Amino acid sequence: MAIKTIIEDNIDVLVAGAGLGGTGAAWEARFWGQNKKIVIAEKANIDRSGAVAQGLYAINCYMGTRFGENNPEDHVRYARIDLMGMVREDLLFDMARHVDSAVHQFEEWGLPLMRNPKTGTYLREGRWQIMIHGESYKPIVAEAAKKSADKVFNRVCVTHLLMDDSKGKPCCGCGRFQRAYR
Questions:
Q1: Distances from the Cα of 125 to the Cαs of 12, 61, 81, 82, 122, in angstroms?
Q2: Is 143 exposed, middle or buried (0-12, 13-18, 19+ CB in 10 A)?
Q3: Can you say whether residue 84 is alpha, beta or left, with left for phi > 0 and alpha for psi between -120 and 50 degrees?
Q4: 3-class SS at 181?
Q5: Are residues 150 and 38 in contact, defined by beta-carbon separation less than 8 angstroms?
Q6: What pTM value is reported for the model?
Q7: Distances (CA, A) of 52 to 39, 48, 66, 98, 108
Q8: Domain annotation for the chain: domains and CATH numbers
Q9: How far apart are CA 44 and CA 18, in angstroms?
Q10: How far apart are the first and last CA of the chain?
C-alpha cells in the first residue's frame, strides 16, 4: 500500500499530538498568534485522543478562589505534604494561580460542571476535585482546538523533524507525516 504524502508549506506552529496538552497548545497559539498558520497532527483522532490525567489537573485541583474556598498557597502546602517535599514550590504556585481560569475556560466552551443550586459553587468530591457531567471534556476541548487550527490531520505520525541550528531554530519544520493506520 502506498504512503500518502502530505505537503503543508509555511506552517508557523505545528502541534504534534492532540491530547489535552496539544489541543490547549493549539488554542493558546491562536490566542497569541492571530495571523499564524497552525496545523495539528494527531496519531489517533483529535476528538478522543490523549491521556487525560495531567490534562485534567485543573478539574482535579480547582482552587475556588472566587468562592473563597482555597488559594494557591493551600495547594502548594497540600502537594508538598502529598509528595513528601519533592516539589518545586515556585512551579506549583504558578500553576495553581492559573488552574481556576482553565476551568472557567472549559465551562465557557460548554463543559457541564455540577453546581450547588443555592450557592452557585461547584460541587466537589473532597477538597480539590470538582464534579463534571459525564466525560465530555475531551470533545469540547478538541472542538476549541479545531476552531483554532488552520488544519487538523488525524491518523498521522510526525516521523522526521527538520533541524536547522544555523538559523537559531533547533527545529524548523517537519520532514514527513506518515499514516498511523493503513
A1: 41, 10, 20, 17, 10
A2: middle
A3: left
A4: coil
A5: yes
A6: 0.75
A7: 21, 10, 25, 18, 19
A8: 13-179 (3.50.50.60)
A9: 9
A10: 8
Strands 38-42 and 156-164, sheet pairing: unpaired
Report residue 42 as a C-alpha cell: 494527531
CB burial readout 66-91, b (16+ within 10 A) else e: eeebbebebbbebbeeeeeeeeeeee
Integer Cα distance of 50 and 18 in angstroms: 7
Q: Which among 136, 139, 113, 152 has a CA at the least distance from the CA of 26?
A: 152
The set of cell numbers assigned to 32 is: 497569541
**Pairwise CA distance, residues 43 & 18, whole Å:** 8
Q: Across the beta sheet with 151-154, what order do the strands follow?
A: 13-16, 38-42, 151-154
Query: What tens-digit pLDDT sequence spans the chain (182 residues)?
Result: 566 666 677 888 989 999 888 998 999 999 999 999 999 999 899 998 876 644 466 677 888 988 899 999 998 998 899 889 999 999 989 988 988 888 898 889 888 889 999 999 999 988 888 888 766 778 888 999 999 999 999 988 877 777 677 766 666 666 555 555 54
